[in-house]
Each structure stands twice: as C-alpha cells, then as structure tokens.
Amino acid sequence: MKKIDKLLLKPFLGMFISSVFITVFVLVMQILLLHFDELVGKNISWSMYAQLVGYIGMHINPKAFPLGMLIATVMTLGNLREHTELIAMKSAGIT
User: Fold this and answer.
1) By CB distance 3.0 to 4.6 Å, which of 34, 53, 69, 89 could disulfide with 94?
2) Structure confidence by residue, pLDDT tens digits, 28-56
3) Residue 55 burial (CB < 10 Å; 0-12/13-18/19+)?
4) Angle, nearest 10°, between helix axes 46-82 and 85-92?
C-alpha cells in the first residue's frame, strides 16, 4: 500500500464510521418520533423497545451507508483542501 493511500484512508475510515453511526441514529430517531403515539402507553417492556430499535437499525443500514460515504468523502476532501494537501498532490501529479 502506498504512503498516499495510507494518508487518505486513515482519516476517511474514522469519519466514515462516525458518520454512519450518526446517520443511523438520526434516521432511527426520525422513525421512532413518527410513530411515538403508537408506541407510548402500550405497556411494552424495555427489551421490546430495544428489539424494535435493532430491527429499525437493520432496516435503515442500506440507507445510512451511502449517506455516511458521502459525508466522509466530503469531509475528508474538505480537510485536505483546508490544509492545502490537495493542491500539493495535484502539483506533484498524483491526482
């Protein structure tokens, strides 16, 4: 693996994992808030709520991964542009 690939992959993976978790959380909370009136007051145990959140999370993952990829890519390229590393790579003929 080239050094430039390691330089780009390390910050991208960190941002990708965190942005996927945040995206899943936001989308799960959106679904739970849409159905809040149907869930509250039905005398359901906490384990059933946890199971529901798990099922919703599995259902949301195919939507969350592309959003996480987009957010991580934009943030990584923005960070490279902010520190003028992208300009240095272009002038060296890497990209």
Assistant:
1) 89
2) 999 999 988 888 888 888 999 899 999 99
3) exposed
4) 60
